[in-house]
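idk why but the lab printer keeps eating my pages so im just putting this in chat instead. protein + copper (II) ion:
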Amino acid sequence: MLDWLPENVSVFGEGVDHLFRLIYYISIAIFLLVNTIYILFIIRYRRKRKGEKAYHYHGNNLLEFSWTALPFALFLFLAFYSDGIWEDIKYSEKKPNPDLVVEVMGQAYLWHFRYPGSDGIFGRRERRFISPTNPFGVDPEDPNGRDDLTGINTMHIPVNKTILVRLSSMDVIHSFFLPNMRVKQDAVPGQWVDVWFNSVKTGEYEIACAELCGSGHYLMRAVLTVQPQREFDTWIDEQYTNKRVSLASAQATTNE
Amino acid sequence: MEAALHTGHDGHAAGHGHSNSFIRTYVFSTDHKMIAKQFMVTAFIFLFIGGAFALFIRWQLAYPGEPIPVIGTMLPSTWVNDAGAVTAEWYTQLLTMHGTIMIFAVIIPLLVGTFGNFAIPLMIGADDMAFPFLNMVSYWLFPIAGLIMMAGFFMEGGMAASGWTAYPPLSAIASPGQTLWIVSLFLIGFSSILGGVNYITTVLNMRAPGMKMFDLPMTVWAVFITAIIIVIGTPVLASALAMLFMDNFLHTSFFQPENLIVPTRDMSRTAGGGQPLLWQHLFWFYSHPAVYIMILPGMGVVSDVISTFARKPLYGYRAMVFAIVAIAFLGIVVWGHHMFQSGMNPLLGTTFMVSTMVIAVPSAIKTFNWLGTMWRGKMEFTAPMLNAVAFVSMFVIGGLSGIFMASTPVDVFIHDTYFIVGHIHYVLFGGSLFAVFAGLYYWFPKMSGRMYSERLAKWHFWITFVTFNGTFFPMHILGMGGMMRRIYDPTVYDFLKPFQPMNEFITINAMILGFAQLLLIANFAWYWFGGRKAKRNPWRANTLEWQAPSPPPHGNFDRPLHVYRGPYEYSAPESVQDYLPQTTSPEDLVEQRRHHEMRLSQVQQAEHLD
Ligand code: HEM
Ligand SMILES: [Cu+2]
Ligand SMILES: [Cu+2]
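predcted complex ->
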């Protein structure tokens, strides 16, 4: 059954899958143990004639204690064991230094992506500047924002690099879900959340929205392209050129 | 205690004077048994509405965009497109209403409303609830609330459509149907609180003479603790609902940050500055305990049924009581496990993971004690017992899937996928609803004074059991594959396309499962009036309700009761029978034994003469 998990291509996804497998095997063991006993009892302890008496017995404290203590120990172990992996994934002080920062903004029903332009610095943003034409709320006064790249429903990242995604939403809550990277994080309006991940394999992967955001929720699909650094750089350059061209033509039209 | 019992009766007699009229007996009744039946019938109606909604959802998931067979083109144009297929808008309303109806209008009214009302006074030997009038109000709020919720159908934009969890801002900028949803839940909350106060008072004050707390059957313990959770948790839900109502209507911003971009609505008067996560904290602070509201009474019923039909004392009675208390109180500190990926500080994820893991312990204790009860028992597999036995094994699966989700890193992947949907249904259908079936069949003779058809009940059980697993088990696999919950069309995603055959398999099972519930209704409708007359104590059970006539008259018992022992003295050596009612006095017991020995010796003499 474990084969049904989608292929994992991220580093910390290993930890998630490892825990999944561990709990899976523990669960199967507990399930089989309980149900075998159960079925044996069902077969063995049937009433054969009316009025037949059963064993009059109220319980045993030692047993009671052991089936309290054993699950307690097991579940506590699972909690602390899981916590190590959780801290690596989520705690801000464990976050590795990112090679690339991408801002992601959810909007019903699409994803906006924003890359810092050639200067590597994002333009300053504020919630109050957000509008349908300015999804990230970039301060129009800030020169750093001029060269920022934004796009819709396509995200590119270099392979084997640590990516930091800064996540928020323009309207309702969405959830940024990368099945193959084992990433899921709600995008909450009015709040920025950092998520990091790292893909070890090139290819195209799907991005989905995992939190109900309206009747078009199912349409909120984007594509993540993981490519070698060189190709990624080319892509960024292309985007940058496109942006300059369109900016120039826009300027040309306004000048006319 | 005697005094309280007395007052209860006086209050009753006063309202009793002109109770012969139809309205007083069947509509505005203050009799706890009639109120229980009213809850039951209303909940059944909602069960079929919620079930039909589920089947529309399943149809769409198995055959996205295809017309609904037979009735598709007959449905209103606000629900289906021209071809008769479910629209995305209606789909979202359906999943919202399915969840809300099943939780608030089916499971809670059946477990708490029906069993709480029917069983508490009878099982503690009281003639009615402490506050019969409040009890009546508690019932009547429920159908009114249900109608208000369904009225969304006539509003622009249809019924509520932001999921049963109603996360703002989605629910704060919604259509009028959402407002009706809020008002409706608010009323249902009051219904619960009135019921809860009644249960607590009744259990504390109106137990029969001689009955100590530790003589209470598990059903009463469970509903009693549940009532405490209700009284603690529901006001929090009510206040959250009030805030959401104001966010929708009065332009407040409890849950809305500054400058939300909502093209469909004028947001200029909404100042912002609120926090969407606040709703989630308040909602789950109620709704996690609410999942225990939906399982504890079931656990109580199942404990009683298993002990009765295994003819064995409940294993570890006190441990079972303490486990319920532990679940109830730990249940108040685990709500954050619904919010691991919500953007809440991950440090809180750690603490909520630990508390959630710990709460699985009392669940394990209960399971082992049920096994212990069956060990060396003499089990008879009647319909109630079959359903109770299924409950235990389904609950184990639901508890184990809970462990996956409790582990925060695993939850990153399976949160908001079909894995959660699988979990919910294993605990709420495999758990709560099987317990409801067990309880309904168990008390059918007492409620109606007739016997149900065992044959029909067994058909109902087996079909339900098989198709239940066929429907919900594969959902765990869908979740492992990453299929998001609440999506209208999974085939939009390449990674979900391979799961379409599984979705079809689920839908076929779900159809059979849905229609099989007609067997339950047929059994009830037919045998309620036409069944064989039931004896007082057809299951030869120990608890007090079986000392009353079947069905019990107004005021319940036809003779004074005194309680001498706990509820689970099955197969006790001091009794000549395999059961020993709580009301049998030590003198009666001696008498019984003398009688029995006399008969034995007569038989021996007769054999001797041969
Ligand atoms: C062993 C005991 C249990 C554990 C460890 C457990 C754990 C969890 C966790 C961690 C979640 C959140 C998952 C997520 O959204 O990512 C969850 C969801 C849920 N649980 Fe449980 N659970 C247990 C028992 C129960 C019981 C007994 C019930 C009800 C009778 C229940 C009903 C629910 C429901 C309705 C949800 C989903 C809410 C939603 O998002 O719609 N659980 N459970
Ligand atoms: Cu969405
Ligand atoms: Cu919970």
